[in-house]
Amino acid sequence: MTAPISSFTPGVLAHSDAARVGFAPRCARFSLRARGDLAPLEAALGLSLPTRIGQRVTAGERQLLCLGPDEWVLHAPERDGAAITAACAGVYADHPHSLVDISGREVSFVIDGPRGAELLTLGCARDLDSIAVGEGRRTLFDGATVILWRDGDTSFRLDCWNSFATHLFHLLDTGVRELAAESL
Amino acid sequence: MLLIHCPYCNETLPEVEFAYASEAHIARPAKPSDVSDEDWAEFLFMRSNVKGPLYERWRHIHGCGRFFNAVRDTVTDKFLTTYKAGDPRPDLSSLTEGLK
Amino acid sequence: MSQYRVSGRGRVDTSRAVTFTFDGKSYRGVQGDTVASALLANGVHLMGRSFKYHRPRGAIAAGSEEPNALIGTRRGAGRFEPNTRATVQEIWDGLETSSQNKFPSLKFDVGAVNDAAYMLFSAGFYYKTFMWPRSFWDKVYEPFIRAAAGLGVSPTEEDPDHYASRNLHCDVLIVGAGPTGLAAARAAAVEGLRVVLVDENAEAGGTLLSEPQARIDGKPAWDWLAAELEALKALGVKVMTRTTAIAYYHQNLIGLVEKLTDHLPKLPADTPRERLWRVRAKQVVLAQGALEKPLVFHGNDRPGVMLAGSAQTFLNRYGVLVGKRPVILTSHDAAWYAAFDLQDAGAQVQAIVDTRADVDALLLNEARARGIAVKLSHTATATSGRLRVSSLRINPVAGGTVGSGQEIRCDAVLMSGGWTPSLHLFSHTKGSLTWDDDRTTFLPNNTPEDCVIAGASRGLWGIEAALADGAEKGRAVVEALGKTGAQVAYAVEADRPGTGVSHKELPTDLSAGKAKAFVDFQNDVTAKDLRLAVREGMRSIEHVKRYTTNGMATDQGKMSNINGLNIASDALGKKQPQVGLTTFRPPYTPTSFGAFAGYHRGEHFEVTRKTDIDSWAEAKNAVFEPVGQWRRARYFPKPGEDMDAAVRRECAATRASVGIFDASTLGKIEVVGPDAVEFMNRMYTNPWTKLAPGRCRYGLLLGDDGYIRDDGVIGRMSEDRFHVTTTTGGAARVLNMMEDYLQTEWPDLNVWLTSTTEQWSTVALNGPDAAKLLAPFVEGVELTEETFPHMSCVECTVAGMPARLFRVSFTGEIGFEVNVPAHLGRKLWETLWDAGQQYGITAYGTETMHVLRAEKGYIIVGQDTDGTVTPYDCGMGWAVGKKKPDFVGMRGLARPDLQAKNRKQLVGLLTEDGSKLEEGAQIVFDPKQAIPMTMVGHVTSSYDIGTTDQPIALALVAGGHEKMGETVYIPMPDRTIAAKITSTVFVDPDNTRLKI
C-alpha cells in the first residue's frame, strides 16, 4: 500500500552517500499568464517578470520562473497566497491576465547530494548541463511533466502533479540507492 | 529519437518533450458556414502527404507549451527548420540547398 | 592446471581456481575465464547442438559473434537465461550452465536424425513442406515446428533481477576500446571534451589483448594498454566495459547495454543486472574492428574447427590451447601467426594449408624455420571425427581442378577466410557502403550522422594502422567540435597487418548435393541452400536471405553475410555490389527484455495515478480498474459479494439515501480572461453568453468534423472565469485541442487555459439525503432549491476547507460535487463519510456510476460514442446552440452525411427474456436473413440490474429514434436475443428526483 502524497511530511525521504531526496514544505503556487505590458503586474507582485524561458527571479520569499512566452509559475509561502491573489485581482480590470491557484496541484521534491544531477538522468532525457544554476525548465521526467529548478550545481527542485509523485519518488528512491552502490 | 529545436525556447531538445500536430499552413476558414461542402471536406480531410520536405506543426507540449511550425523531410525524418506560428513559410529551396 | 591451460600465458589469474558446472558436470577454470575458455582448457569442444540438424557444435569464435556455443545459464533461483554465448559469459564459483537443443544428452541426441534427413531440410523447406494438406496444419505441422523451433528454453520463473536505465550526454562517444578507439579517445580527451569509451568485452583493449607480442612506443602492448587506460581515466574519459552499443538512432542517439552482475558470484545490493544507457553524443567514433570469416567447406562446423584469430585469443587472453595438434586452413596471412603463436605455446602444428599459391616469403621462411609443413594452393574438402574433429581432408587445386585428397590427423582446425569490417552500427545510421574488390568486402562510405568510422571497421588491418587512424579520426572529431587537435603518431613493432583473399565455398571433389559446407552456423544454412535458392528463382539478396534464413539468426550473420553474398553472387553470375547486402538492424547483439523495460515493470510498468482518496478505497478493499493512467475504485464489495451484488447494493443505496463517490479524476481546466466566454462559445456546442456566474451547464465538445469528442459540466465562477470539466481519459487531449485552436486559429483571444485536474479533489454526493448530509458543513450558501438550484456553482467553505461546490447530477438523484484543494480530499471524504453514517451512506465506484447514469440515459463519451456519433445521433440536439455564428463542429454537422436519414442513433434496449446483453454485440432487424447478415448497430452499454426491474442496455441502431417499441435481434453464438427499442431514460423520465 502506498501512502497518499498528502501524508508525506517535509524532510528527507531517501538518502545515500550519492544523493538525497527531500520533500519540500507546502507552498502557495500560481500559474500566471499574461501578455503585453507586464509592468502593472510586476508592480502588483513586487517582482519583475523575466521573458526568457527558463529565467528565474526571486523577490523576498517569492520565486518566479518563466515557463513559456506568456507563462510563469510563482512560488510563495502559503500565508502569502491570499495577498498575491488580491494584488493581481486589483490590476485585472485594466491589465487582464490569468492567475490560477495551483497550490493543491503539485508537490516538490528536493534533490541534492554529490550526484544529485546524475540522479535526474535516470528519468530526464534532456541535457541537464543546459539548465544553468539559478534557472529552471519544464521538461519530462520518467513520463511525467515536471518543472526542474536548478538551485545549485547538484541541487534541484522537481515540481510534479500529485498523482505522479509516488511513481516518480519510487524511481528517485531506487536511484539514490543505485548510485550509492556504484563504484566509481 | 530526434532532436527538435523549439523556436520559443530557442533550445534543441529531445523529441519526447514534443507532440506532433499534423500538417501546417492549413488555416481553418474564418467563416466555416460560408464554405462549400467540397471546400470543407478539403479542409477537414485532405493533406499533402509528400515524400520529402513537409510543412508540419509540433507542440512543445512538455516544455513551453507552444505550437510551432517545422519543415521536416519525410524521407530522412530530419527537421530542416522550425519557426514560430504565424511566421511565413520558409523557402524550401534554401533549406534543401544545405543538405546536398 | 587443466590439460590445455598454458602457464605464463593469458590475462587470467591461474592462482584463483573457479568451479562451475556444464550439463551437471563440475569443471575447474580460473578467474578471468569465460565458459568457453574454461571448457576448452578442459579439452571440451562440444558445447551445443545446432538449431535445425542438431549437429554437434563447439565454439567457433571467442567473442560476441559466436554462433554455436549458446548455453543456458543459471545464476540462482529464478535467474535462468537461455542462448547466452559461452564465449561471453564469465565464470564464477557456482555458476550452472547447460547445453541446448539436445535430447536426451549432448553426446547422444535423437534430433540428430534431422541431420541424416538433410536433403529434406534444404532451403525453403518450411515453405514447401507445410503447404498441404491443410488439415495437417493444426495437428502435425504446427506442433512439430513449435517443438523444433527456437533456441534454448524460455525461462519459466519471473525474473528477480532489476534493470536500470540512464541518459547520458557527451561530446564524443567512442564505440570499441581497441587501439583505434583508444587513440581516438586520447585525441578527444586531451582537448577537454566529455568523452565516453565503451567496449562489450570484460576489459578494454580489443585486439591488443590477443596480441601481446606487439610493442607500442617501445612498451609491450599490455603495459602500454594499462598505462593508456590510466591516462584516459585521469583525463576524465568515462571508460565502460561489458557495455555493448546495441543501436544507433537518429541524431547520434546510441543505445548501450551495460552488464553489471552476470559476471559476479554474489549480487551486490541495489545493483541492477543491466543498465540501458541512452547516450546523446555530439560526435561518434565507430571503432568496432573487424570480424574474422570462416571458410566454407564440407564439415566446417565440426567441434574443434574454429577461427584462427579466436584460437589466438583463447591462447593469448585466456592461456588456453584449443588443440595440441592443430592444422591451419587459411586464405589470409593472419592465420599463419596463429600457427606460430600456438607452436610457441607447445602445440604441434600439423600443417599450414593455404588456398593461395603465393604467400609472403617472410611467412614461408618463418614456417620453414619452425619446421611446419606448408601446403599452398590447397582446398579442404572434409573433416572427420564424431564429436570433435580428428582429421582434415585437403586436396591440391591446380588450374581449377581439385586433385586427390589427403587426410591430416589433427585435434583442431584453425581457419581464416579473412576479415569483415564491423559495419553494423554504421548501417544503423543509414550509412552508405562501397564494395572493395581488393578486400572482397563492403567498406563504409557516407553517413548522414555526425559520425566517423575508423580502423579495422574501415578495412585497415594491423595495430599501427588502427592507432594512426584512431588518432586521425579522433582529431577530425575534435575539429568538428571547434577545437584544434594535435597530430599524434604511434610507433608499433611486431605488428601483424597481413593480407589475404576471400572465397565463396572452397572448391571440392564431393558431389555438390552431398556437401554440408556451412555458411550460417546458427541457422544451419549451407552453401548448397544458397545456390538452391538462386536456382529456384530468388534474385534479390533479401529474398535469398529470407528463403534460406541465412543471416537471420540471433548473430544476424556476423560471420555469414559476406560468405553468403559471395556464394549468391557467384550463383547469380553478378558482382557482389550488384547483389547488395542485407540490412543490419538493432540490436547489435541479443539484448534482454529487462534492459529494454528498465525500471518499468510490475507496479511501475507505467505511471499509476491515484487520487488523494484512493488510499481510503484501498483500505476498504475496493476493487480497482484502470481508467487512462488512473486507477479508480470500481466497486466496494462486502464479504461474499461479487461485482453484480455489490453494484446492485451501491445503486440501491444511492437512490434510497446517499452515495459517496470519488470524482477527482475528472479533467478540469480553468478558462480565464476577458474573452473566456467567447472562447467557450467557439469551443463548445452550447451557448455560454447568457450563463450567469454561479451557474453551470452541460457542455458538449465536437471536432470540426461534427462528431462528439468530449463532454462535461462547466461552471461559470465569475464573468471571466470558467471551471470546465472533462472526461477522465480526455483531460489531456481536450486541453491540447483547446490550446491548438487558441494558439493557432484564435491567437487574438485574450484568454488562458490552465489544467486544474489535480488542483482539486472532488467528492460527489448523490441521493435523496445528499443535501441534508452536506448542508451543515457548507458556509456561504444555503442548499435549498431556491438559493442553490440544480446546475449551480459557488466558491464557499465546506467543513472548514476552501471549496468550489457544484450542484450537478450524473445519477438522476440530488447531486453535489465538492471540490477542495487536492491534499484535503481524503479529509473531506472522511468527514462526510462519518457524518453520513446516520443516513447509511454508501461508497460507490465507477461501475455503479456507470449503471446509475445509464439508467438515466446519460452518455459516456468513448463508450456510447465512438468518434462517429453526433449530438443529434445521441438525442442531444438540445445541447447545440442554434443561433451561434460558429463553433467547432458546427460546419461539420451540416455535412450531408451527418444530415442523412437512417444514421445510427442512440436508443435504449430491453431484452424480451430479461437477459443481459453483451457490450459490443451486433444488432440486426431480421434474424432469419442469410449470413452474412446486415448489421444495423451495436450494443454500447449493458448492465445487470441496478435499480431497474431488468438489465438495461444502450445501443446505436440505424434510424433508432424512429423505431421506438420495435423489436431488434442480437444474434449470439448459442442463440438469438430479441430486444425492444426504448427511450434511453429508464428511471425518472421527468427528473422529479433532482429536486430537494
UniProtKB/TrEMBL annotation, chain A:
Stored InterPro entries: SoxG, SoxG_het, TrmE/GcvT-like
Pfam families xref list: SoxG (PF04268)
Leader sequence residues: none
Stored Gene3D superfamilies: Heterotetrameric sarcosine oxidase (3.30.70.1520), Probable tRNA modification gtpase trme, domain 1 (3.30.1360.120)
Coiled coil stretches, renumbered: none
Top-level taxon of origin: Bacteria
UniProt-recorded name of the protein: Sarcosine oxidase subunit gamma family protein
Automatic annotation (TrEMBL), chain B:
Origin superkingdom: Bacteria
Pfam families reported in the protein's UniProt record: SoxD
Protein name listed in UniProt: Sarcosine oxidase subunit delta
From TrEMBL, chain C:
Parts of the chain that traverse the membrane: none
Domain annotation FAD/NAD(P)-binding: ranges: 171-436
Domain Aminomethyltransferase C-terminal: 904-988
InterPro entries in the cross-refs: 2Fe-2S-bd_N, BFD-like_2Fe2S-bd_dom_sf, FAD/NAD-bd_sf, FAD/NAD-binding_dom, GcvT/YgfZ/DmdA, GcvT/YgfZ_C, GcvT_C, GCVT_N
Keywords: Oxidoreductase
Short name of one Pfam family: SO_alpha_A3
Ranges of residues in domain SoxA A3: 515-598
Domain called GCVT N-terminal: residue spans: 615-884
The keyword Zinc is assigned to this record: no
Family: Belongs to the GcvT family.
NCBIfam families: soxA
Name recorded for this polypeptide: Sarcosine oxidase subunit alpha
Originating species: Pseudodonghicola flavimaris
